[in-house]
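Pilot study result, target chain (492 residues):
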Amino acid sequence: MKNSNYAMKIAVVFSFILSFGYFNSIQAQQNSVELTLSKFTSDPVNEFAAISFCAIDLSSGNVIAEHNSKMALAPASIIKLFTTATAFQQMGAYHRPKTRLYYDGAIDSLGVLSGNLIIRGGGDPSLGSRFFEKEENLRDFLLEWVDTLRNMGITKIEGDIISDGSEFGYTGAPDGWTWGDMGNYYGSGPSGIVLFDNMTYLSFETTDEIGGETTISCIDPYVHNLTFRNEVKSGKTTRDNAYAFGAPFLNDRFIRGTLPLSQEEFKVKVSIPDPELLLAQELNYELTNNGIQVAGVALGQRNLGLDMDYTNKILAYTHEGRTIANIAYHTNMRSVNLFAEQLLCLTSHYKSGYGSSSSGADYAQSYWEPTIGTGFTLTDGSGLSRNNAVSAYHFTQLLKSMKSSSNFEEFKKTLPIAGKSGTLSSVCRGQKASGRLYAKSGTMTRTKAYSGYVESTSGKNIAFAIIVNNHTTSSSRLVKKMEPIFNAMAQY
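Predicted structure:
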């Protein structure tokens, strides 16, 4: 019996040694990226999460590490890589969207225009944009238009001021956007006419009492007939916790949440419901204010419901917006949703003459499928849509394709740099990946994602993507858990 127990102990020890050796052998076969990835995927905060990861060596095409690399997930804002890449590839870095001024009728010897003045939108997101102009210069383009008309001798317009954004449709928002996003500045939908980033500021006065009523004292720029049911309270917070709700084109909205105590003029950004109509109103105001009479009214083409025929109209002026490279830079560096949606629509309009959200998404999908394969779904340009589904593998193939493109350098310039710039300025700061990782970030409720390039210390160029859906921790804490993976790639 004693010998039997001894033999059993020897067998257990031998089995343990074999198991330990096998485990060490497996570990020895894993590279540093795989080891940190394994630790991340097994973290308790990811127990119920879906994770897709892929990193490839761009020189050889070999996979460095992967985990569910072909699992298509909601990628949030890293979808902007598809949007900007498509825009660069199809329109080029230096293409400029255009807004044109037309008129019908005739100008008589006294400078009276007997017809209408029409603004034909071309989807330019840089009109009065705070990303390109100082606050005091936001209306300069309108004054430039007024000067142009005055130099043509126009002193009075007998007809109406009509703003036409019909070439981009009137869907208002892409498929998959939620009620909680629309109404807020980051949920401004794409349109043929974009003005002041399709955003207005509400100025709130708050009380010194928690739960106290707030008052909206100003709307700037002023939007005619825009009304709010104000449910915002004064609260123990240091930041903007107010959220607006309202569908595109509707002026009746409500806003709820909390704002800091004892504020005289706390500004909250919300979306403009009808930028097409607002541009006609703003131009009408500037014309009248600068001595050109307007007998008619300001109108939006959507409300007129008629197809505008430009064959019998006279082109008076063409305004060129910022370049695709300029717009794409802020799209990725600052993660501007509106710019992403406009780029998607602009690409479709450039290729087909029609620039709706759905046509843009369909075009981008059909453009990339022959290069990176099927199995992914694009429904918008910004990543706000929960209907997008893309895997880490698809992102690395997109990045690989762009690496060999003549537009690569311009594309890469749009990407935030870890520890240095944009939305990655605080990621891996002072760590190995700082200055070596160029990537787009993505964040939604229970979703965090990154995708881009890494220049490793050994001289390797890496394309990677990581997408996590349904994690159970804060976004900032999850990023800290991702950082070892980024540092491992930087040292690979």
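One observation from the pilot: Residues 11-27 have pLDDT under 50 and may be disordered. A full batch analysis is planned for the follow-on phase.
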